[in-house]
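Hi U.,

Before I forget, here's the chain from the pilot set. I'm dumping it here mostly so it's searchable later in email.
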Amino acid sequence: MKKTEIEIIRQIRFGSVKEKDLIDIFDNQQNNYRIRFHLVQHPKFPVKIALNIIHQLFTMDMIRLIKNRRANPFIRKKAETEFLTRYQRLALGEKISILKTAPAQVLNHFIEENDYRILKGILKNQECTEELILKFINRKTQKSEFYRALQLSDWYKRPAIIEAIIRDQEAPIKLILDMIPILKTAQLKRLYHNENTHEIVKEIIMKHFSNKGPDQ
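Structure:
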């Protein structure tokens, strides 16, 4: 009896299949997109054939392939390269949607991104990490749009990120002012005595200490 598409996909994903079995499935199902997509993710599927499938994948499926640690690492890397090439041609909405779900290794390619809307999407991504945020903060290029997006998230409240922000001379005054209530006394004093700290920030720090009282 001829197997259904679902049965074939289950065989690929969960069955004990040899390379020859995978090639036979490919030969018989070359026009079935879903089956090709599952074949290319199988670690035993021939690399030579997989390379010819990658560029045919939908962009979101490329992301799924990149994230699939079961897939051949070489194929995952090729999919990442193909995605980065295709990304430039995508509409803004699709870029935002994809980067909300992209894995960390993909997000690392966007450290120099300046579009506020895309940056918001990256910061909402569950695979976004403190390490990635610190790379954004420490980059040498203009980052006002990044800080604008960061201020709408909770990332700036994390200890390691707080330290990086208060050391950054380019950190916006508004963000620093929002952070004052969560800074530790030592951090506030260091910020106050820093010659690069804006006078408005110093004034607010003094008011903060006054409100806390002499015992604080």
